[in-house]
Specification:
By secondary structure, the protein is an alpha+beta fold. It has a single domain, classed as Alpha-D-Glucose-1,6-Bisphosphate, Chain A, domain 4, CATH 3.30.530.20. Helices cover about 25% and strands about 50% of the residues. It is built from three helices and seven strands; from the N terminus they run E-H-H-E-E-E-E-E-E-H. The protein has a seven-stranded antiparallel sheet. A hairpin with a 4-residue loop joins strand 3 and strand 4. The radius of gyration is 15 Å and the shape is globular. The N and C termini lie far apart (about 40 Å). The mean pLDDT is about 90.
């Protein structure tokens, strides 16, 4: 059974600036660490944001090529779910953004990962935590630079 892992960070930028970096999939290999390649497969005509994206991922214990489907709620939230994968049964998550009143944004990243091969829950949760921490740290650095 897949469990959800989450973490929160504060970024010194407005939610729109943070979401612009999250929505800029072409830049992911530069700041996420685990993502080695991206390709936007489908874009929403109304919002101009990606709704299907292919990723090549190398997160140590998890190496995969997969497609994620995205739903956007303005600059407040983006959710994704696994469409296809070689190794994963689930890769679902979200970035939830909220202005903190001081000009910054609180970003919460939630992630659920389930693999097709047997893996100890402790190892899987550690991999999830590493992915989340690196993504949030990379996002903060990218937005604030």
């Amino acid at each position: 059974m897949a469990e959800r892992t989450s973490s929160t960070i504060t970024i010194d930028a407005a939610p729109a600036e943070v979401m612009a970096v999250i929505a800029g999939f072409e830049g992911y290999p530069e700041w996420t660490g685990e993502v080695k390649e991206t390709e936007v497969l489908e874009v929403d005509d109304k919002t101009g944001r990606a709704v299907r994206v292919r990723f090549r991922l190398d997160a140590g214990t998890i190496r995969d090529e997969h497609v994620l489907g995205y739903t956007w709620d303005g600059d407040r939230e983006v959710r994704w779910t696994l469409v296809t994968s070689q190794m994963l049964k689930a890769l679902d998550g979200c970035y939830a953004l909220s202005a903190n009143g001081g000009g910054g944004t609180e970003v919460t990243y939630e992630l659920t990962v389930d693999v097709k091969i047997p893996m100890l829950g402790m190892i899987k949760r550690k991999a999830e935590k590493v992915i989340i921490d690196r993504a949030l740290t990379g996002l903060k650095k990218r937005v604030e630079s």
